[in-house]
């Protein structure tokens, strides 16, 4: 482990902030060594088109045992180049068993990057590769695109942003975020270099590309996609653009929302108060006299504390007296009618006696109630 500590100190002295050493929390032993390797281009850092991060994990028996390593976050490198760098590192580890090898691995990776300091793979915009003479641009996140393709991408982003910005109401446009260019690969923020890329020429493969023709294979693919589209549409999984385009989206401010809620609450309150008012204002249609008495008694002024008990006693007594007076008057009237028309007396005692008695009883009760109320 002394050899590893010496090697780590040498790496920190040479690479300084470009190397990251991770140690275990308890023992403080070196657990991981990580650094980003760039090609040698002198002082022209803008010409460094490729890079890769080397991560080395020393084993407990290092350097007598071979360490493990990983190649992370490659930029401008395709799978073939990564595999070549990985094979060169494995060969260097086998040659250096028993000796510190971390610094040697860094040098192996740097040599490969310097020998092929040209982005490989495809441009994510046009899907063509990078050929000699093509103008390409490296973003801040180390992704490579043809300068011509990047300019088209930025113009499309700005056009879409302006369309969405124009749809916003005036009060939202004031607080909207400004336009920000994004990398088409990782969506990270990049510099807007549209002006400097206007004069970029298209890539050579795009200029020399054959004219597009519909092949038999493409027709079969279109047929399969059409069947899939109809199947999804029948299940309701496809959005109808025409139907959605006619839909209107209403944007309300906070003040509009408060006004709408107050208006809804007022309408709900009116609906609740309407039936109650109709019940109070609607006159009674009952033919009985009792509701009238109750209504008249309800609107009469309440008696004072001084004469409440007196009025109560007088009312009850008057009611009883009036009831007996009417009852006696009723019997005298029947007796007089019987004396004047003796022949009708049996008939009256028969079928019509009960009806007359009921009618007279109702009249007597009504008169009694009216008399008591008047008193």
Automatic annotation (TrEMBL):
Biased composition regions of type Low complexity, renumbered to the chain: 340-375
Region (Disordered): 297-375
Compositionally biased tracts (Basic residues): 310-332
Cellular component GO terms, alphabetical: nucleus
GO MF annotation terms: ubiquitin protein ligase activity; zinc ion binding
Zinc recorded as keyword: yes
InterPro entries: RNF25 (IPR039133), RWD_dom (IPR006575), UBQ-conjugating_enzyme/RWD (IPR016135), Znf_RING (IPR001841), Znf_RING/FYVE/PHD (IPR013083)
Keyword presence, Zinc: yes
RWD domain residues: 6-116
Domain RING-type: 123-187
Gene3D superfamilies, sorted: Ubiquitin Conjugating Enzyme, Zinc/RING finger domain, C3HC4 (zinc finger)
Domain of life per record: Eukaryota
GO biological process assignments: cellular response to stress; positive regulation of metabolic process; protein ubiquitination; regulation of gene expression; regulation of protein metabolic process
Pfam families named in the record: RWD (PF05773)
PANTHER family xrefs: E3 UBIQUITIN-PROTEIN LIGASE RNF25, RING FINGER PROTEIN 25
Protein name per the record: E3 ubiquitin-protein ligase RNF25 isoform X1
Species classification: Eukaryota, Metazoa, Ecdysozoa, Arthropoda, Hexapoda
């Amino acid at each position: 482990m002394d050899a590893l500590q010496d090697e780590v100190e040498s790496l920190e002295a040479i690479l300084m902030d470009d190397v990251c050493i991770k140690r275990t929390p308890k023992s403080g032993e070196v657990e991981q060594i990580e650094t980003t390797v760039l090609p040698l281009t002198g002082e022209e850092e803008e010409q460094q088109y490729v890079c890769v991060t080397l991560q080395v994990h020393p084993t407990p028996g290092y350097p007598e045992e071979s360490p493990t390593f990983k190649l992370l976050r490659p930029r401008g490198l395709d799978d073939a180049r990564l595999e070549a760098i990985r094979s060169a590192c494995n060969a260097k580890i086998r040659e250096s068993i028993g000796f510190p090898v971390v610094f040697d691995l860094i040098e192996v990776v740097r040599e490969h990057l310097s020998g092929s300091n040209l982005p490989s793979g495809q441009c994510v915009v046009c899907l063509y590769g990078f050929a000699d003479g093509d103008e390409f641009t490296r973003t801040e996140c180390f992704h490579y695109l043809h300068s011509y393709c990047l300019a088209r991408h930025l113009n499309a982003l700005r056009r879409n942003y302006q369309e969405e910005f124009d749809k916003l109401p005036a009060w939202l446009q004031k607080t909207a975020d400004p336009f920000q260019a994004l990398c088409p690969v990782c969506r990270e923020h990049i510099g807007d270099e549209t002006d400097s890329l206007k004069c970029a020429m298209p890539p050579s493969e795009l200029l020399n590309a054959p004219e597009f023709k519909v092949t038999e294979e493409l027709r079969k693919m279109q047929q399969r996609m059409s069947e899939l589209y109809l199947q999804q549409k029948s299940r309701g999984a496809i959005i109808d653009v025409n139907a959605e385009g006619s839909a209107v989206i209403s944007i309300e401010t906070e003040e509009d929302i408060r006004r709408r809620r107050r208006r809804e609450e007022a309408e709900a309150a009116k609906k609740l108060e309407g039936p109650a008012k109709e019940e109070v204002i609607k006159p009674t249609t009952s033919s009985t006299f009792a509701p009238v008495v109750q209504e008249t008694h309800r609107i009469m002024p309440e008696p004072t504390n001084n004469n409440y008990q007196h009025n109560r006693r007088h009312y009850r007594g008057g009611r009883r007296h009036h009831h007996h007076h009417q009852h006696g008057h009723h019997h005298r009237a029947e007796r007089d009618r019987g004396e004047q028309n003796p022949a009708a007396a049996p008939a009256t005692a028969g079928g019509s006696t009960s009806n007359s008695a009921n009618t007279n009883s109702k009249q007597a009760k009504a008169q009694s109630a009216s008399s008591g109320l008047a008193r």
